[in-house]
């Protein structure tokens, strides 16, 4: 990467030859007379970090909700690892290998950090209710393995020392990390992060950027919604841009920042100075900006 600022267009992790891991194909979603998504199509390749960006109300989170089974598209389809997703329940989609975080923190506030991560790991447990009730060997083994994995994930996100802390007592930054650890506990092939840097200061954003890279290094594919353009430009290999529920760009970061439609969507009118300020990381500010809108 040039000066560690703009992500390379093709990382060695990305599978450029096989079928896409995720394919969003001409997805339209209508709520009565409102069209929230209008024939949106894009692909996510295995090993890729792809950012989904756009102004507020562009349809980014709605797109996540279609992918994860919260909404069923009016038209079009979503295919994940060869399986069509529309009509499947969210927990079935999680078992297939898609995990997500949300804009607003959704932890179990009275549970410990360890217990929150164990909730994520539970999705793949095979023990029956009877087995759990009577403490059969399989249940004890799964419980033992689950705790070991939860502790490993907490260590991975820098929270091993907080394993026994109740979630509501954690700082905002640690709560965000805990959400990521819980999502990773579901063993996802695709991790969807919805504005993970919201409310972060520059130092926290830099730590998040490194965490996302380490997650990808483990073999996970990442789809990221984020308003902080410095963070996006510094980590994504490709960017999909939505405006008013329609895709207006799909390209590497360097091309997106020069795209007139993208500039107009964010700034109203193309202006070279404003583009450099809003869509490109400063060379003396690699930690990101803490004033992105949410």
Strand-helix topology:
Elements: E1 22-31, E2 34-44, E3 49-53, H1 60-67, E4 75-80, E5 83-84, H2 90-96, E6 98-100, H3 113-121, H4 129-134, H5 137-156, H6 172-184, E7 190-194, H7 202-217, E8 221-225, H8 229-235, E9 238-243, E10 246-251, H9 253-256, H10 260-267, H11 272-279
Parallel strand pairs: 3-8, 3-9, 6-7, 7-8
Antiparallel strand pairs: 1-2, 1-4, 4-5, 9-10
Helix pairs in contact: 3-5, 3-6, 5-6
GO cellular component, one term: plasma membrane
Organism: Stackebrandtia nassauensis (strain DSM 44728 / CIP 108903 / NRRL B-16338 / NBRC 102104 / LLR-40K-21)
Biased composition (Acidic residues): 269-279
CATH architecture level-2 label of the largest domain: 3-Layer(aba) Sandwich
* Main sheet makeup: 6 strands, mixed
Mean pLDDT across all amino acids = 85
Radius of gyration: 20 Å
Oligomer: single chain
Helicity range: 25-40%
Q: Largest sheet, order of strands side by side?
A: 6-7-8-3-9-10
Shape: globular
**Overall number of strands:** 10
Description:
There is one protein chain. The strands form 2 sheets. The protein has a 6-stranded mixed sheet with strand order 6-7-8-3-9-10, sandwiched between helices. It has a 4-stranded antiparallel sheet with strand order 2-1-4-5, with helices on one face. Helix content is 36%, strand content 20%. It has helices spanning 60-67, 90-96, 113-121, 129-134, 137-156, 172-184, 202-217, 229-235, 253-256, 260-267, 272-279, and strands spanning 22-31, 34-44, 49-53, 75-80, 83-84, 98-100, 190-194, 221-225, 238-243, 246-251. Strand 7, helix 7 (202-217) and strand 8 form a beta-alpha-beta unit. The protein has 11 helices and 10 strands. It has 2 domains: 18-97 and 190-268, Rossmann fold; 106-187, P-loop containing nucleotide triphosphate hydrolases (Rossmann fold), CATH 3.40.50.300. Helix 3 crosses helix 5 (137-156) and helix 5 (137-156) packs across helix 6. The longest helix has 20 residues, at 137-156. By secondary structure, the protein is α/β, with parallel strands linked by helices.
């Amino acid at each position: 990467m040039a000066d560690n600022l703009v992500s390379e267009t093709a990382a060695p992790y990305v599978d450029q030859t096989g079928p896409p891991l995720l394919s969003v194909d001409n997805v339209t979603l209508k709520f009565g007379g409102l069209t929230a998504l209008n024939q949106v199509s894009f692909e996510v390749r295995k090993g890729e970090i792809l950012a989904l960006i756009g102004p507020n109300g562009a349809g980014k989170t709605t797109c996540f909700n279609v992918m994860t089974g919260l909404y069923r598209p009016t038209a079009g389809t979503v295919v994940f690892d060869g399986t069509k997703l529309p009509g499947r329940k969210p927990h079935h989609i999680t078992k297939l290998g898609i995990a997500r975080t949300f804009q607003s923190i959704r932890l179990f506030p009275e549970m410990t950090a360890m217990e929150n991560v164990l909730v994520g790991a539970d999705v793949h447990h095979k023990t029956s209710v009877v087995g759990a009730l009577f403490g059969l060997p399989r249940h004890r083994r799964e419980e033992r393995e689950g705790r070991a994995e939860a502790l490993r994930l907490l260590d991975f996100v820098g929270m091993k020392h907080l394993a026994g802390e109740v979630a509501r007592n954690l700082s905002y930054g640690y709560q965000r990390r805990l959400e990521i650890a819980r999502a990773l506990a579901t063993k996802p092939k695709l991790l969807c992060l919805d504005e993970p840097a919201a409310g972060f200061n520059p130092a926290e954003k830099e730590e998040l950027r490194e965490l996302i890279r380490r997650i990808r290094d483990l073999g996970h594919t990442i789809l990221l919604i984020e308003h902080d353009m410095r963070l996006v430009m510094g980590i994504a290999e490709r960017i999909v841009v939505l405006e008013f529920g329609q895709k207006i760009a799909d390209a590497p970061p360097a091309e997106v920042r020069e795209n007139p439609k993208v500039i107009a969507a964010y700034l109203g009118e193309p202006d070279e100075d404003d583009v450099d300020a809003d869509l490109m990381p400063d060379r003396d500010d690699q930690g990101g900006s803490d004033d992105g809108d949410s």
